[in-house]
Amino acid sequence: MKIGVIADDFTGASDIALTLAEAGMRVAQFIGVPGGRADPDLGAGVVALKSRTAPVAEAVEASLAACDWLLEQGAQQIVFKVCSTFDSTSQGNIGPVLDALADRLQAGPVVVCPAFPENGRSVYQGHLFVNDRLLNESGMQDHPLTPMRDADLRRVLATQSTRSVGHIPASAVAQGPDEITRHLGQPAHMITDAISNADLIQIGRAAKDTQLLCGGSGIAIGLPANFGAQPSTPPWRAIDGQGAVFSGSCSRATREQVDIFQTHAPAFQIDAATAVNGDYDIAEMARWVLAQDTAPLVYSSADPDAVRAAQDRFGTTLAADAIESIFSRLAIALRDQGLRRLIVAGGETSGAVVTALGVQTLTIGPRAAAGVPLVMAGDMAMALKSGNFGGPDFFANTLALMEATP
Length: 406
Hints:
Number of domains: 2
CATH superfamily of the largest domain: Putative sugar-binding, N-terminal domain
């Protein structure tokens, strides 16, 4: 193993796994820290954790355990994969985890760059943009768990980290690896500008000999070439049979996808109060899903006002936990009755579902959309979608892609 990745959620893990696979590396995505050895022929291993919104101490402990395991597999470079919207709370978890990893690796300067230009995320003058909007004007300010109200990543990270936070400007990145390296002269977390994939490739070249990097999946674009990898398309075999879509994300993009998909597909909305009260019959829900002629949608996605109302009534996490439990138990029931294709929208929802299913390793397939691969979990085809990713027709297109012969 050349590159080891620690991802703070499951959709982010499959996102960066796709980036590495398309860059020519043989990749496996592990659900949690494995108990045994990895295949020695892997070029990269991605450990998916559910640590983005975990208590800080728990996130640090899990991330260090993942780091130790990846090093035992021979990883020469560690990437801490965070969301391309860098979402976290003021207490963490990005800063504390990154500090702990830097200490464990005795790392010098750390490139920190969540840019993902293909999905509209860019970093300029140390500020994170989502398309043409600053992060705090993009809708992320209304995230129910990790609202982002400051686009200046230097300030965001400085509130969480005990290390110095510096900046590598776009003017330096444009001059190439030597100039980027020149700026990597101090043991600090260096917020690095990037507005295009070309910038990320230059950053990857400059980071050839660094021990630790942090960013979104884009940070990995230029890394495999340092180990001699050549771009390729991950293999896939067609999977047909009953399908379903679960959506727990409340992002703008996912809400639009939900609205479009339910115009031509059966849909069932999970109500927060009913979930908290334990009034859903999972067996009945599973029967409804499997009785549909086309893949149906089961969703809890709601607009920010509805989410805030649920949080005000039940607390920040009670409703979310209850809804995740519904999705998790429904996924088990459907899997046991032969479900073959499943799309899950939302990082927290994806983590809950995959964990409930007892999946240990995901095999990475081709892309369904930028940042979203098809994956195989045993004999089930899945796609784990970060909330803001994918086009308006993502659900229908991805279900069809799962059935297609390459």
